[in-house]
Amino acid sequence: MWITTNYDGVVKDLVKVYKFGHQRAAARAISDLMLGTLMDFNDPRDIAKLNYLVVSVPTATTRVRQRSFDHSSLLAKTLARKLNLTETSALGRLGQTRQLGAKRPDRLAQPEGNYFVRVPEAVKGRNVLVVDDVVTTGATLRAATRALRQAGAKRVDALVFAKRL
Fold first, then answer.
1. CATH for 2-163, among 1.10.287, 3.40.50, 3.30.1490, 3.30.420?
2. Considering only CA atoms, which of 34, 37, 36 is closest in space to residue 133?
3. Where are the domains of the chain?
4. Is the pTM of this model over 0.85?
5. Closest C-alpha among 141, 41, 123, 34 to residue 87
6. What confidence tens digit (pLDDT) does each residue in 1-26 have?
């Protein structure tokens, strides 16, 4: 898992403006920073060889309606475009459980079984890069990774913008 920065100060403000202030253009700035992190730790040729399938962590339908866009999907699409990789909405979400504001034990328990792969053939044998904006306990990414591996993904890595302290 590659994490760009900590979730505090100006980063926290940027994420809030992006997600709750309907500032879709912030996806470019966030994805630029995430891309920088990926390239700091990897040779671009290695990324090209892995030929990742870029997948976002699905956002709850109620949140997409409230925000009028899927912030996670937009971030994954923007990043995939910059890396010249394919993005797909391969992951599906069961239920509408909220992570935001939940206590740590609840966060750890909630994602179990919440994710599934819509079309297993799309990920079978592929290297998958899961993109997410903020990670707290890592439970969501573990659940997403489990679903992708069960569907036959060869390798699953994660790129996250910020880690909540």
1. 3.40.50
2. 34
3. 2-163
4. yes
5. 123
6. 999 999 999 999 999 999 888 888 89
